[in-house]
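Appendix C reproduces, verbatim, an entry submitted by the partner laboratory led by Prof. M.T., so that reviewers can inspect both the input and the predicted structure.
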Amino acid sequence: MKEFWIYTALRMGLFLGAFAIVFGVWFLAADSVPVLWVIVVAFLISGVASFLLLNDQRTAFASKVEARAGKVSERYEAARSKEDLD
C-alpha cells in the first residue's frame, strides 16, 4: 500500500503545481479566470508530466499489485486442488 500512497501523493502534487502555474499565467494574461478550464488544462499537463516523470513509482506500484495478485491466485489454486482431492 505504501507504493499506492506515494504515487497518489506525487500525482496530487503535480496536479496542484500545474493548477497553480496555469491559474497564475491565466490570471496575469486576463482579468477573469475560468476555473473549469484551468482545471482541465492542469489535469492534462499533470497527466503528461506524471507519465514522463513518475515511471519508477508507477512500476513499483504495478509490481506490488502483480505480486499480491499472484499470491491470491496461488491460494485460489491450492484451495481448488484441495477441493478436487476430496
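The chain is about 90% helix and 0% strand. Additional entries are available on request from the coordinating office.
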